[in-house]
Amino acid sequence: MQxxxxxxxxxxxxxxxxxxxxxEEYFDRIYRYIxxxxxxxxxxEDIAGQVFLKMLESISSFKxxxxxxxxxxxxxxxxxxxxHLRQKAKKGHLVLDESMAISEIDPAVLAEVxxxxxxxxxxxxxxxxxxxxxxxxRFGAGLSTAETARVVGKSEGAVKxxxxxxxxxxxxxxxxxxxxx
Length: 181
Hints:
Radius of gyration: 18 Å
Largest sheet: none
CATH topology of the largest domain: Rna Polymerase Sigma Factor, Chain: A
Order of helices and strands: HHHHHHHH
Mean pLDDT: 81
Structural class: mainly alpha
Number of strands: 0
C-alpha cells in the first residue's frame, strides 16, 4: 500500500512513468472485471480505456480515504460499466462473447461452448446486483475477498456471503438445465 501511495502521488504530480506503471499494474484486472460485467471483449476494451482516461483527467483530485487506489479505479470501472449496460438494455439483450473463452475449436465443441456460455449468461442475469458485482470483482478481476470488500464498501463477511449465495444460485440454475437435457 505504501508503494502504491508513492506511485499515485508521483502520478498526481504529472510523472508519466508513474502513470504508465499504474496503467500496467491495473489494466488487466480492470479489463477482466469489465469483460465479466458487459460480456463483450470489444466493449470491455473500450470501457477499460475510458477508465484510464478518466483516471488521467481526475487523478489530481484523488484523495486517500483509507482504501487502496485500486478501489477508486474499480469504482470508475463500475460506473462506466453500469452506464454501458443501461445503454445496451435500451437496445436489446446482452450475450457473453464466446471469443473470450475459446479460440480455434472444432464446430461441434464450439456449438456446445456457445450453449454453455448462453446458459451461464442467463444464470448470471438472474443474480442480484450485489451478487453480480461480487462475482465480477472476485472472478473477473481476480480480487481477493478483502480487496472486493473495500471496492464495494462491505465487510469481508458480507462479500463471502454474497459470493456463496451467488455460487449456490448459479449451481442450482445450471444443474437444473443439465437435468432437463
